[in-house]
Amino acid sequence: MKEYDEVRLPKYDCLLFDLDDTLYPVSFGLQSACSKNITDYMSEKLGIKDGEIPDLSNALYKTYGTTLAGLRAIGYNINYDEYHSFVHGRLPYENLKYDAVLRSLLLSLPYRKVIFTNADRIHAVKVLTLLGLEDCFEGIICFETLNRQQNFNSDATDSSPIFDIVGHFAKLDAEIELPKTPVLCKPSGESILQALQIADVDPDRTIFFEDSVRNIQSGKRIGLHTVLVGTSQRMKGADHSLESIHNLREAFPELWEDAKKLEEILYDGKVAIETSVTA
Ligand SMILES: [Mg+2]
């Protein structure tokens, strides 16, 4: 059995990628435009006073992962499709260009590759198509994947009061419990576990690429190998840090080396394995 034991499978079999600010740099300006659109949505569609929006969106984002998840938690009845088309409708998509370097890096890696984003499918497909990466992944886990059952209830009456989350934090009233959100999104551990289950991957054999430190930390707690993208600084929870996803080969030569080894095993290892099993 000795020879058989020496046949080692590659350490990883899946690469899980966040989308925005991970597969393209934050300097492209999509994130800042998106934040501006969310502010406009809160003002124009929900009638929240402009002066209250910065503190409110900050509290919601920090507490619930995304502003949308937070708005739902505190009592706003929001049509998800309308929200997504509003906040993603006017982004500077023209800044996203065909990325031949990333495309060839991804295609040269014979591992399962999956996108995991909090954004909606229309946005995800648009970004991947503009980057020329739409066929580099086996699937996209997005907002709709994790929130299929809980869309807008058009019959709901808006009679219930909105929870005052900014006031709640100002008073630090530990007696009152924060309302729960029906939206499942990163960085919640539950959202990551569900994504892993849907993609059918083993966290211990998966590398998670993300630009958000809190998502990375949450992924680490679940047992994923983590790579923080967008900075070369090491952070707690990140096994590696990459200034750009383009640095993948320099940072992880073993991904290609392992793949080559596996290819060799598959090519001429069959006989060796059979021999060792009967030995
Ligand atoms: Mg991101």
UniProtKB/TrEMBL annotation:
Tree of life domain: Eukaryota
A Pfam family that the UniProt record links to this protein: HAD_2
TM helices/strands, residue ranges: none
Gene3D superfamilies, alphabetized: 1.10.150.450, HAD superfamily/HAD-like
GO MF term list: hydrolase activity
PANTHER family tied to this protein: HALOACID DEHALOGENASE-LIKE HYDROLASE (PTHR12725), HALOACID DEHALOGENASE-LIKE HYDROLASE (HAD) SUPERFAMILY PROTEIN (PTHR12725:SF82)
Protein name (Swiss-Prot/TrEMBL): Pyrimidine 5-nucleotidase family protein
Gene source species: Zostera marina
